[in-house]
Design brief:
The chain is of the alpha/beta class. The chain contains 16 helices and 11 strands. The radius of gyration is 26 Å and the shape is globular. Keywords: Acyltransferase, Membrane, Transferase, Transmembrane, Transmembrane helix.
Length: 485
């Protein structure tokens, strides 16, 4: 059965090449007749016409072909051990805030943590270690400078580019947006050129990182050769700590952890590590339930927080189905698309014939199109839903689960932590294809395909044993006392 399936895929995926070979074989069986026909139609006028047409077609193809976009390098913020928030610490801190969180809410949060898939190594910002948490603007700025500058320092240290080489800057952070915005903060810190184009995205949740990739792709495909885009993805937690008792609004306190990632994209293949493939974004905000699935609001006591719907995993599954309907035909081999078309045709024919029952559509095997999967580490339920929906193995989702366990939900930067995990484990090979999937408020689902051009030269990344190495711009350790810590 496996041999038959392999033969089927080879034949269908290479049908045009096999057909061309068959035609060539037939023609070469009678070379004298072929040569006679060519001499009969050959003349200087015919040759000149053919040359002009060939040149025109080649130029038209080059003009219509989209300019390639490449990932030059990426870097991730790696928190020091002093920022860790093990479960025991979370429990102790919760009991020190009885006027903010009641015992029932504490028990609920601990049960959630135990089932979340997060480990004791996940980290929270300095502000979360204060009793009560420091939700001031200054605390949020300190966290922003720590995670963003560390990630940008890392990406520049890994690449041959410098801040002077950056032409476009895109920074995304969903909830916290100060004035001046983060994009201006990065321009000021790294003294980017005065003509640099900068964009600051907010409110898009965990999908903003891949939304930024789509925006960068559109810009690079119409920009002069050699244009470089710096993307920074983060989520700032300090000012967003929820101090009420609404269970649906306590979820972010338990799941989200500090993190940031930076990447440099270019339309030049020089020094490229990955080539960008298809980018597909699906927005389901027209449905009221999806629109309110991740919603910032106040509870009955006036405490502001993010309410996560209990149907979040189901909503993500529906959004993923819509996204796959658009993304699948662009990336799946012909053998898988043919099986989907046949199953769809069988269902239609059975419906037209009036037979009872429902024909189940064929679920395509995306492992024929990708070797690696980076599923947004939004929580164990989200990863489970995607794994089940795509029919993936535990090995396929290992990077997502381990990123959730080690770093928690770092929002829009999580997919790059997962890519770093794969490279740190030495699993990325030249030519390997990667599918990144993210979900965000709205509700959004984003898919981005990459092809590896050059694997990482070393394993020094968030997934390595040196993952807690101190970045070059790390500030001092958290303060040990404030308001009776």
């Amino acid at each position: 059965m496996l041999l038959l399936k392999a033969v089927y895929r080879v034949v269908v995926n290479n049908f045009l090449a096999l057909a061309a070979a068959a035609v060539a074989a037939v023609l070469l069986r009678r070379p004298d007749e072929l040569a006679a026909r060519l001499r009969a139609v050959s003349s200087p006028l015919h040759a000149a016409t053919a040359a002009v047409l060939a040149a025109g077609v080649a130029r038209l193809v080059r003009a219509r072909r989209a300019r390639g976009v490449y990932l030059v390098e990426y870097g991730c913020f790696r928190p020091r051990p002093c920022y860790r928030a093990p479960f025991a610490t979370c429990l102790e801190h919760a009991h020190l805030m009885p006027y903010l969180v009641d015992e029932e809410s504490v028990a609920f949060a601990i049960r959630l943590l135990e089932r979340s898939g997060l480990g004791d190594e996940t980290c929270v910002p300095d502000a979360y270690h204060y009793m009560p948490p420091d939700r001031s603007l200054r605390a949020s700025r300190d966290e922003s400078e720590l995670v963003i500058f560390s990630a940008v320092d890392d990406v520049f240290a890994r690449s041959a580019l410098t801040p002077a080489d950056i032409d476009v800057l895109i920074v995304n952070c969903s909830i916290f947006t100060p004035t001046p915005v983060f994009a201006d903060m990065v321009v000021n810190r790294y003294k980017l050129r005065a003509e640099v184009q900068n964009v600051n995205l907010s409110g898009m949740g965990c999908s903003a990182g891949l939304v930024s990739v789509g925006l960068a792709k559109n810009l690079l495909q119409v920009s002069p050769p050699g244009t470089n885009v710096l993307i920074v993805s983060t989520e700032i937690l300090s000012s967003q700590y929820y101090v009420g008792t609404e269970r649906a609004m306590l979820l972010p306190n338990c799941l989200f952890r500090m993190g940031a990632a930076a990447m440099i994209l270019s339309n030049s293949p020089d020094h490229a590590r990955f080539r960008l493939g298809r980018v597909v974004r699906t927005v389901t905000a027209a449905r009221d339930s999806d629109y309110r699935c991740v919603f910032q609001e106040e509870d009955e006591q006036g405490n502001t927080g993010i309410r996560l719907s209990k149907d979040l995993a189901t909503t993500a599954g529906h959004a993923l189905k819509s996204n796959i309907a658009a993304f699948g035909p662009l990336v799946l081999p012909a053998s898988e698309q043919l099986l989907v078309a046949i199953s769809f045709l069988k269902r239609k024919l059975k419906q037209l014939s009036g037979h009872a029952g429902k024909v189940r559509l064929y679920r395509p095997d995306f492992r024929t199109a990708f070797e690696h999967f980076c599923i947004h580490a939004g929580g164990r339920g989200v990863i489970d839903e995607v794994q089940h929906g795509l029919g993936l193995s535990d090995d396929d989702v290992e990077a997502s689960r381990m990123t959730l366990h080690r770093f928690g939900n770092t929002s829009s930067s999580s997919v790059l932590y997962e890519l770093a995990y794969l490279e740190a484990k030495g699993r990325m090979k030249r030519g390997d294809r990667v599918w990144m999937i993210s979900f965000g408020a709205g509700f959004d689902c984003n898919s981005v395909a990459w092809e590896c051009v050059k694997p990482a030269p070393d394993a020094d990344g968030p997934g390595s044993t040196a993952s807690t190495a101190t970045p070059s711009s790390s500030p001092k350790s958290p303060k040990t006392s404030k308001n009776d810590r």
